[in-house]
Write a structure and sequence with these properties.
The protein folds into two domains: 319 residues, ABC transporter type 1, transmembrane domain (ABC transporter transmembrane region fold); 240 residues, P-loop containing nucleotide triphosphate hydrolases (Rossmann fold), CATH 3.40.50.300. A hairpin with an 8-residue loop joins strand 1 and strand 2. It has 19 helices and ten strands. By secondary structure, it is an alpha/beta fold. The longest helix has 53 residues.
Length: 580
């Protein structure tokens, strides 16, 4: 864990190194601020010696020292203010870069990573954990630079006053370091567990809030509360232990520092009696002894923030360093004709359990290919492979003779228009959602596509029409699906993928949409995943899948006449209607 913590710190330092100028400014300003602060006690010591000397008090000298002290305090305050501004700017730039890198990496991650990690945990890493890094860095810069420079220059000024007392202070320094390091090792582990548990908590809250209707419909609320309570108890336990361990650092180091302070006073008293040190000199040494140990106290006082930031940074860098998708080839796929060949493809999400085995398809331009079969047979997986959301384990998929692994993913997916059963709309206007794949579309093009998709009727009834800003509860599921269909109608891609594209639409609208799809699919290679077999009767080729294999293929009439698995599926759905 310690190794992990130091490794994470070095990774953060690489981001800080991008802003060397701000870093240098911060160090220089910190040095100037500390030197000014440390020079002031010297002036106080000299002023005190002027008061306690034999004879009269030298008011002119004391007044002169006090005036110089006032000027230095004003300058020191201004330098500290500028230093804090520089530290703030440096911190926010570093945090911005870390968050931007994390967002870019999410876009590069394969679906296998996103499928195996909850979205709530990923959001927690990018938002909450990076915020914790910001808080820790801000305190770290302020305390670290100033603290290190304070220690160095305090020792220099102390050596100029008294070598024996300075050496005594230095001897006790490792004790404070050792105590702080021992406690920090325990607290880092607890802060790491705290951060991970907070991610679990965020994921559960997002899951329950996003599925609130389902939770209420199935009476899952009590169980959800129990799950939340269990996670919350773990979070409470880890948080309490983390705070407990980190809170030990400050009083422990302060106890050691108090002993050092007392020893300096005792040794200084003997030196005064021996005539080798003045009262003003002892005053300066006591001030320096306190200032020398103060950086250790300051760092220990913010150890909670620093340890939390380090633990959160570890989680963020785990995301940033996650293995991305395989690199994209430079080659671009031209506009596809639609001849698709799937040759001896095998694939599985879990390598110990094969899902698709020895899968073969060959389509010509403009063919309508329907994929049917029971739940879990691999229909949607075939779509994932065609779009290259996942790479095949063996075999190959080619379009117009181009192996899809030898062209960029963007150029491949640009040739597909896809409508899924699960709809997705972004927070934006109706216009922005429809033009998602064609940002330069005109209003006339958008309206024509909406009319083709039969969504224009409800769009024009919205408060602001195309300019209406959508939220989750503004539209029904069917209306959301119509907008997704409109999005495809606008792009007019050379190939189509329809995965239960009309599952949330009423029967009358489905007939109208089906007619629109028939028009859209003319001359375009189309892959249609359907449970309702009535929607794929006119398909040129129907692939019947079971257990990851194609067990039957042909058109509707030939498959029915064979009396095989397709016939059983069809008759189970339409026997009663046929009798009627």
């Amino acid at each position: 864990m310690k190794k992990s913590g130091s490794g994470t710190f070095l990774k953060v330092m690489k981001y800080i190194g991008r802003y060397r100028m701000l870093l240098v400014m911060s160090v220089v300003l910190a040095g100037a601020s500390v030197i000014l602060q440390l020079y002031i006690p010297n002036l106080f010591g000299d002023a005190i010696d002027g008061i306690v000397a034999k004879g009269n008090v030298d008011f002119d000298m004391v007044g002169n020292y006090l005036a110089r002290i006032l000027v230095l305090v004003i300058i020191c305050s201004a330098v500290t203010f500028v230093m804090n501004m520089v530290n703030n700017k440096l911190t926010y730039k570093v945090v911005r870069d870390i968050r931007s890198t994390a967002i870019r990496r999410i876009q590069e991650l394969p679906l296998s990573y996103l499928d195996s990690h909850s979205s709530g945990d990923i959001v927690s890493r990018v938002i909450a954990d990076v915020d914790q890094i910001s808080d820790g860095l801000l305190l770290g810069f302020t305390q670290l630079f100033s603290g290190v420079i304070t220690i160095v220059f305090t020792l220099i000024f102390m050596f100029l006053r008294s070598v024996p007392i300075t050496l005594m202070v230095v001897v006790f320094t490792p004790v404070s370091f050792w105590v702080a390091k021992l406690i920090a090792g325990h607290s880092f582990k607890m802060f790491r567990l705290q951060s991970e548990t907070r991610g679990e908590q965020t994921a559960l809250v997002e899951e329950m809030v996003g599925s609130e209707k389902t939770v209420k419909a199935f009476g899952y609320g009590k169980k959800a509360s129990q799950r939340y309570r269990s996670i919350n108890l773990k979070l409470q336990e880890y948080s309490q232990k983390a705070v407990f361990y980190s809170s030990l650092t400050n009083p422990s180091t302060r106890a050691i520092n108090s002993v050092v302070y007392a020893l300096v006073a005792l040794a200084g008293s003997f030196l005064i009696m021996g005539g080798t040190l003045t009262v003003g000199g002892l005053s300066v040494l006591l001030t320096y002894a306190n200032q020398y140990m103060k950086p250790f106290n300051d760092i220990s006082s913010v150890i909670t923030e620093l340890q939390t930031a380090l633990a959160c940074a570890t989680r963020v860098f785990e995301l940033i360093e996650a293995k991305p998708e395989s690199p994209d080839p430079v080659a671009e796929m031209p506009t596809a004709e639609g001849a698709v060949r799937v040759d001896n493809v095998s694939f599985s999400y879990d390598k110990s359990a094969k899902l698709i085995d020895d899968f073969n398809i060959e389509t010509k331009k403009g063919m309508r290919v329907a994929i049917v079969g029971p739940t879990g047979c691999g229909k949607t997986t075939v779509i994932n492979l065609l779009m290259r959301f996942y790479d095949v384990d063996s075999g190959s998929i080619s379009i117009d003779g181009h192996d899809i692994r030898e062209v960029s993913r963007h150029s491949l997916r640009r040739n597909y228009g896809m409508v899924l059963q699960d709809t997705w709309l972004m927070n934006g206007t109706v216009r922005e959602n429809i033009a998602f794949g064609k940002p330069d579309a005109t209003d006339d093009e958008i309206i024509n596509a909406a009319k083709e998709a039969h969504s224009w009727g409800f769009i024009r009834r919205l408060p602001e029409g195309l300019d209406t800003v959508l939220s989750d509860d503004d539209l029904s599921q069917g209306q959301k699906q119509l907008l997704c269909i409109t999005r495809v109608m606008l792009c007019l891609p050379p190939m189509l993928i329809l995965d239960e594209a009309t599952s949330s639409i009423d029967t009358r609208t489905e007939i109208l949409i089906q007619n629109a799809f028939d028009k859209l699919m003319q001359g375009r290679t189309s892959f249609i995943v359907a449970h309702r077999l009535s929607t794929i009767r006119d398909a040129d080729l129907i692939l019947v899948m079971k257990d990851g294999r194609i067990i039957e293929q042909g058109n509707h009439e030939s498959l029915l006449s064979n009396g095989g698995f397709y016939s059983e599926l069809y008759n189970s759905q339409f026997a009663l209607q046929d009798e009627g």
